[in-house]
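Exercise 7b. Backbone tokens:
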């Protein structure tokens, strides 16, 4: 089963990632949730990201709020595709996720991160599936089935 790392910048971000984990499961992809912070546990982020490919991950999803550096820092340590999810928590910052959105979208040239909508965790799973579908027929079939069912509903 293809493996995707699902990173949260804080335990407080984990509920936002539930739709992502659910969608990965529905598509037959193993999603492994880990909590690590670009600011509070930078050495852990480096260690994880630098070894992610050798650990068997094919795509990394990283969610963070506020000055959301986690996806960009992870991308700096790996050539795996990184999908960023800007987080806006209920009752969160004064700018409601715009801080995280810009932090993730406005990467400097050379280190790209795919940026989803604010709290767009489910789309992060679907985008990861689209990448994996290039190689894994089972994921391509699951994604096509999902699209058909979505149209019908
Ligand atoms: C970010 O700061 C995290 O991704 C989270 O969205 C936000 C707040 O973190 P906590 O103070 O709840 O741990 O780094």
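Sequence design result:
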């Amino acid at each position: 089963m293809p493996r995707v790392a699902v990173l949260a910048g804080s335990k407080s971000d984990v509920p936002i990632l539930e739709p992502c984990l659910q969608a990965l499961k529905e598509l037959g992809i193993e999603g492994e949730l880990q909590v690590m912070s670009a600011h509070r546990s930078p050495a852990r982020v480096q260690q994880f990201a630098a070894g992610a490919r050798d650990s068997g991950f094919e795509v990394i999803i990283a969610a963070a709020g506020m000055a959301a550096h986690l996806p960009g820092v992870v991308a700096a340590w790996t050539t795996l595709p990184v999908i960023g999810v800007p987080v806006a928590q209920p009752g969160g910052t004064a700018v409601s996720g715009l801080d995280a959105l810009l932090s993730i979208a406005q990467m400097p040239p050379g280190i790209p991160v795919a940026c989803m909508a604010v709290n767009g965790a489910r789309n992060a799973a679907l985008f990861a599936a689209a990448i994996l579908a290039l190689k894994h027929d089972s994921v391509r079939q699951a994604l096509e089935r999902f699209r058909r069912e979505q149209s019908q509903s």
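Instructor comment: Residues 9-10, 12-13, 37, 64-66, 87 surround 5-O-phosphono-beta-D-ribofuranose (CB under 6 Å). DSSP finds six helices and five strands in the chain.
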